[in-house]
Design goal:
Blueprint: H1 2-6, H2 23-32, E1 37-38, H3 47-56, E2 61-62, H4 76-85, H5 98-109
Parallel strand pairs: 1-2
Length: 112
């Protein structure tokens, strides 16, 4: 909202981390003046909801289709947080990437 008020020419895109999963989420971001919506990956296959969201706004919508996380992964927030801070850790600090590794382990073990 602050960016759009002070620099209206700058395009603002939501992040997948915004967790947009509903028409109400879309409306809230519309009020902030975003130019593109990146919807949460958990709704990528909910075609009914995607149609409803499309009918709610003319703002371009982006879907990220190659998410490696489990559906509705309990580690997703931690995983994204670790990734976001990875570039500032020194070489002496150890980032095992536990959330990502555990998610992948579950995915490999569960063949259903």
């Amino acid at each position: 909202m602050i960016v759009k008020q002070n620099f209206p020419h700058i395009k603002v895109n939501t992040s997948i981390n915004s967790k947009i999963r509903s028409k109400e989420d879309v409306r809230r971001y519309m009020l902030l003046g975003v130019d593109r919506l990146t919807l949460h990956h958990d709704i990528n296959r909910d075609f009914g909801l995607l149609k409803e969201i499309r009918a709610t706004t003319e703002i371009p919508i982006e879907l990220l289709s190659n998410n490696a996380c489990l559906y509705d992964c309990i580690y997703a927030s931690n995983h994204m947080n670790i990734d976001a801070h990875a570039s500032i850790w020194s070489s002496t600090e150890r980032n095992t990437g536990f959330p990502r590794l555990n998610c992948k382990d579950i995915r490999l073990r569960d063949n259903s």
